[in-house]
Amino acid sequence: MSSGRSLVELGETISRLTKQLQKGCDDEGISSPTVNDVGAASRKSLFETDASAALELAQAVRELEVLTQPPRLSLGVLALATLDASILGVIAEFNIAELVPLDRPISYRELAQKTGLDEDRLGECY
């Protein structure tokens, strides 16, 4: 994963790419995105603005995380990512996303009946 870049090199790369992506936003007349509006459907993503810079920035940030986090924390993040992937697999396998209504809440009991999964096990996924 690591390209062998130093802390300073990564910082400079992140700064350069951030400025490049901001210039792309400015050129298109859109405001710089914040964490609060990342999921906004009407908002153009940084990836759409400059895919190459967005991917390179994400890679540099991952490398910086490796340098700055203790191994125990990195392993914890990896374990959670693995769990998330497993949960997404269950959601896809049992078509759960299609079964959850958009216009109202659904109980674990009702979802369990629709999927044939055990209610308690289904609740553990979320």
Account of the protein in words:
- The protein has helices at 7-27, 46-49, 51-68, 71-93, 96-99, 108-115, 119-124.
- It has 126 residues and is mostly helical.
- It folds into 2 domains: 1-68; 71-126, no CATH class.
- Helix 1 runs antiparallel to helix 3 (51-68).
- It is flat.
Instruction: Count the E strands.
Output: 0
Count of the separate structural domains: 2
Which ranges are low-confidence, i.e. pLDDT below 50, for 5 or more consecutive residues? none
Largest sheet: none
Specify the helix fraction band.
55-70%
Classification by helices and strands: mainly alpha
What value does the Rg take, in angstroms?
Answer: 20 Å
The ordered string of helix (H) and strand (E) elements is HHHHHHH
* β-strand amount: under 5%
Q: Helical region count?
A: 7
What's the rounded overall pLDDT mean? 83
Distance between termini? Answer: 30 Å
- Principal-axes geometry comes out as flat
Topology:
Blueprint: H1 7-27, H2 46-49, H3 51-68, H4 71-93, H5 96-99, H6 108-115, H7 119-124
Descriptive terms for the model:
single chain, 2 domains, mainly alpha, 126 residues, 67% helix
What would a concise description of this structure say?
The protein is 67% helix and 0% strand.
